[in-house]
Amino acid sequence: MMKLFRMLKPYWIGVVFVLFAVFIQALTELFLPTLMADIVDEGIAKSNIPYIWQTGGLMLGVALFGMVFSITGSYLSAKVSMGFGRDLRSRVFSHAQRFTLKEFDNFGTASLITRTTNDITQVQQVLMMMLRMMAMAPMMMIGGIIMAVSKDAKLSLVLVVVIPVLALLILVLGRSALPLFKAMQKKIDKLNLVLRENLTGIRVIRAFGRENSERQRFDHASRDLMDTAIKVNKIMAAMMPAMMLILNFSTIAIIWYGSIRIDAGEMQLGNLIAFIQYAMQILFSLIMVSIIFVMVPRASVSAGRINEVLDAVPDITDSASPTSVSQQGHLEFRDVSFTYQGAEAPALEEISFEARPGEVTALIGGTGSGKSTLVNLIPRFYDVTSGSILVDGADIRDLSQESLRQKIGYVPQKALLFTGSVAENIRHGKEDATDEEMQQAAEIAQAAEFINSLEKGYDAPVSQGGSNLSGGQKQRLSIARALVRRPEIYIFDDSFSALDFKTDAKLRAALKTEIQDATILMVAQRVSTVMDADRIIVLDQGKIAGIGTHYDLMNSSEVYREIVSSQLSEEELSAQVGGNRNE
């Protein structure tokens, strides 16, 4: 946790003022019992009414003075802790933004959300308590002991017995709770995971009538967390009654022993009253420490989880001296192989091909053949296991990730939109895109017609995940987002699957006309989408099973013929073969 608290440097002035305010507050609270003792011994015992009024007024002034510093300290501690939480949350988020897909796979999305929200909140709350209670407790304890001894040294022997007993109780209960706090945070992760899967997969769950089983799965995760929380709370609940019992017995002992000393004339009544108040301050400072012991173990677990994220080094980093390349878009794979972490077999093996500017290179193959894996290597979502990928003659590992991705317009297999307006989603590809550029991108993507039919046009709202749009509409906006940035390389990862054949054909025709100078890499399942490509790469179980035009592959690639025959009728297939012979 101390590692995270190094981020408090920008707030050191606020921390100093908080500690100063707490110090003044502690002095005022330590001064009040002495004034009370003076009122009893000098005022009440001697019937000195003016002295009672004078000292009572001083007590009121000291109390008000302490209250001002207490409010100031509370305000500043809240401000410092909230600012720290904001900065830490921003740092974790920014660091996670640099993660590769490998790090996201390792941590898990649900866990990263928990660490960025719940865990940081735990640390933030403990910081606020530490600035107030952890600073106040030792001041009150040490000051209380000094003042109690000054009132009666022999009576202070009661505290010598009580304080170690309380400290031992706090230590034992704190150590018992720590493993349970660790378990709680992991079970919160599990609960978030189940909840997230349930909410994002609600259509599938309802389609297969799995509501009851999912409810049971959520109840199991929730009950598991509840059981652990109850165990922790039982331990913590036992702490307060035990401490109050010790506190009450110590009060009885002080009054009993103090009355003997007063009867013997060795102590005044006012000093006994002051001593009891100082004893209460000392013991309540230990109770404050016990409250901190409740929060600190959980916060220390949370801090460790946050540090795990901050200490994680992204698997993919920029070269120390990034290379700059010309703006062309020539793409080349040289003997590229890739294996996912923990996988037994490579997902891609010895892939070599070129994709040139002005040409359409299509990737086709069965499910699991490695098409999406291949295109994910180009923006360096993953790094190749062996071989190299070159853009304009430079290995992409020698380019900065930012400059590499500026060259790429990527349309993922699953269209993902963000909450906002239609225009904001298109401009996600190019923040400073003009209205004309945005509208042109929508025209090419065949999205302009449905956008103009919306009530607010380009200012129409887009719900979370684009839930207020159809699959085809989301896909077309996703394509427009890539088109608006005018990159040198376009990657369409099965991006036309949600489009009807007519829209698909119009879109491909528009692409051929409007972005004819760019390199286009197109992943597709439908043969009709790739037939007109300049180059078709057939993948089978992670290897290249053929490269060529549609008609070349009809003669040379059995895998490609199988794909074609599975999608075209016998008449269409005969026409394809016949056309090939005529040529």
Beta-strand proportion: 5-15%
Strand order of the largest sheet: 6-9-10-3-11-12
User: What is the CATH class of the largest domain?
Assistant: Mainly Alpha
Radius of gyration: 36 Å
When the domains are counted, the total is: 3
Separation of the first and last Cα atoms: 73 Å
Question: What overall geometry do the principal axes of the alpha carbons give?
Answer: elongated
Structural class: alpha/beta
Number of distinct beta strands = 12
Helix fraction?
55-70%
CATH topology (fold) name of the largest domain: ABC transporter transmembrane region fold
CATH superfamily of the largest domain: ABC transporter type 1, transmembrane domain
The CATH architecture of the largest domain can be given as Up-down Bundle
Q: What is the residue-averaged pLDDT? A: 84
Number of helices: 19
**Major pleated sheet:** 6 strands, mixed
How would you describe the overall organization of this protein?
It is a single chain. With about 575 residues, the protein is an alpha/beta fold. It has 3 domains: about 5-310, ABC transporter type 1, transmembrane domain (ABC transporter transmembrane region fold), CATH 1.20.1560; about 325-405 and about 490-583, Rossmann fold (3-Layer(aba) Sandwich); about 415-485, Rossmann fold (3-Layer(aba) Sandwich), CATH 3.40.50.300. The chain is about 65% helix and about 10% strand. The chain has helices at about 10-45, 50-95, 100-105, 110-150, 155-200, 200-205, 210-265, 270-310, 370-375, 400-405, 420-425, 435-445, 450-455, 470-485, 500-515, 525-530, 550-555, 560-565, 570-580, and strands at about 330-340, 350-355, 360-365, 385-390, 395, 410, 420, 460, 490-495, 520-525, 535-540, 545-550. The chain has a 6-stranded mixed β-sheet with strand order 6-9-10-3-11-12, sandwiched between helices. The protein has a 4-stranded antiparallel β-sheet with strand order 2-1-4-5, with helices on one face. Helix 15 (about 500-515) links the parallel strand 9 (about 490-495) and strand 10. Helix 1 runs parallel beside helix 4, helix 4 (about 110-150) runs antiparallel to helix 8 (about 270-310) and helix 17 (about 550-555) packs across helix 19. The longest helix has about 55 residues, at about 210-265. The radius of gyration is 36 Å and the shape is elongated. The N and C termini lie far apart (about 75 Å). The model has no long low-confidence stretch (mean pLDDT about 85).
